[in-house]
């Protein structure tokens, strides 16, 4: 199926200074007021510039992965040590140590995991409050992946073994919590949800898989478990709920992600063929992501949003180059599916930035808010140059 938007955006937006200052304040009521005002401003800006889908900029959270696990019953936030409490050879460890992070927080299941209250309904209601109802279909909210804490933490420490006997038992309850969250958002009018799972790209690295083996875990079986739980969270979803999954290499400020260079080749068949999502948001903005060849594993009926515009640099892209690269990607898919390039472009592809502009609240790799908007307008204009139905 064709992606909902030919020009998409996949994550957070640069926070205004007053919001950054409010995050550190003790006055939670004042923080919520600042968040609401910031979201209202950012929604209006997206409307004015015809940027779609409309998002909250993730202003309601301080990092892309925050906000969900923290709301679940049975979950506790714990301080963990870097690198002692992490999996061996976890790709982000060197980067965290390089910027001086020796401790961080993780959400650990100390009891039975249950959904008791919504995590992102307030943010969705803040978006809706600034829009006529006919615009709700043009919005999107991103949720962190259910794999997030589990893939980082040493084997067997993401949950209490007094509560869960194994990963599947743990993830079954996590998936039920996600389905409850998604249902609340759907019932409130949301029709487009993105799952952010940059961690799955760790599996392209032999070093990461070797670290998994050091814990006496089979990395192929672990990836199978992650595919299973991702499918579980969208199981039995309404037919008019569009779901996508974002698989990038990240752009966290100060944390070099060059260690994630490499093609999607090693994971493409299992993920593109095995995940029951409508579209895949994939990073292809520079050489670290490899060629488009892994797209040959895309099944008919699925879409790809090509992350061709970088949020890692303020440098602007060229529309002619974007047009060329879209055709190159379409050629790979067309050959594998025995279809024409034009047909694939029309019913399977869209473009976007490769990641959000501020995966952590302090991020601004493109330099300024002005350059961020220039990048998003560029995505819009590039899409309009390729597709007649682009907004």
UniProtKB/TrEMBL annotation:
Highest taxon of source: Eukaryota
A GO MF term: 5-methyltetrahydropteroyltriglutamate-homocysteine S-methyltransferase activity
InterPro entries: Met_Synth_C/arc, UROD/MetE-like_sf
Listed Pfam families: Meth_synt_2 (PF01717)
A Gene Ontology biological process term: methionine biosynthetic process
Domain Cobalamin-independent methionine synthase MetE C-terminal/archaeal: 170-361
This protein's name: Cobalamin-independent methionine synthase MetE C-terminal/archaeal domain-containing protein
Native species: Pestalotiopsis fici (strain W106-1 / CGMCC3.15140)
């Amino acid at each position: 199926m064709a992606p909902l938007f030919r020009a998409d955006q996949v994550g957070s937006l640069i926070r205004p200074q007053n919001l950054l200052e409010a995050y550190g304040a003790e006055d939670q009521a004042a923080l919520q007021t600042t968040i609401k005002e910031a979201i209202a401003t950012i929604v209006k800006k997206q409307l004015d510039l015809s940027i779609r889908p409309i998002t909250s900029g993730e202003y309601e959270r301080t990092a892309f992965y925050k906000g969900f696990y923290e709301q679940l019953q049975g979950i506790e936030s714990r301080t963990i040590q870097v690198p002692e409490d992490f999996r061996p050879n976890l790709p982000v460890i060197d980067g965290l140590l390089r910027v001086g992070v020796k401790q961080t927080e993780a959400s650990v299941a100390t009891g039975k995991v249950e959904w008791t209250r919504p995590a992102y309904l307030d943010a969705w209601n803040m978006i809706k409050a600034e829009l006529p109802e006919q615009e709700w279909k043009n919005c999107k909210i991103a949720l962190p992946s259910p794999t997030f804490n589990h893939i980082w933490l040493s084997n067997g420490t993401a949950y209490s073994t007094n509560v869960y006997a194994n990963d599947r038992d743990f993830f079954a309850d996590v998936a039920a919590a996600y389905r409850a969250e998604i249902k609340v958002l759907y019932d409130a009018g949301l029709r487009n949800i993105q799952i952010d799972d940059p961690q799955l790209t760790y599996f392209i690295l032999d070093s990461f898989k070797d670290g998994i083996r050091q814990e006496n875990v089979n990395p192929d079986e672990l990836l199978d478990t992650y595919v299973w739980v991702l499918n579980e969270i969208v199981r039995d979803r309404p037919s008019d709920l569009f779901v996508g999954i974002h698989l990038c290499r990240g752009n966290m400020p100060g944390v070099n992600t060059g260690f994630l260079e490499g093609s999607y080749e090693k994971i493409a068949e299992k993920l593109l063929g095995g995940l029951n999502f409508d579209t895949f948001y994939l990073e292809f903005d520079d050489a670290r992501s490899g060629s488009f060849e892994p797209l040959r594993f895309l099944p008919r009926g699925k879409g790809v949003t090509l992350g061709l515009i970088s949020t890692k640099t303020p440098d602007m892209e060229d529309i002619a180059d974007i047009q060329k690269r879209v055709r190159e990607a379409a050629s790979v898919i067309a050959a594998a599916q025995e279809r024409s390039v034009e047909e694939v472009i029309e019913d399977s592809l869209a473009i976007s930035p490769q990641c959000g502009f501020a995966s952590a609240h302090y991020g601004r790799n493109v330099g300024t808010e002005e350059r961020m908007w220039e990048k998003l307008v560029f995505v819009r204009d590039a899409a309009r140059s390729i597709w007649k139905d682009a907004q």
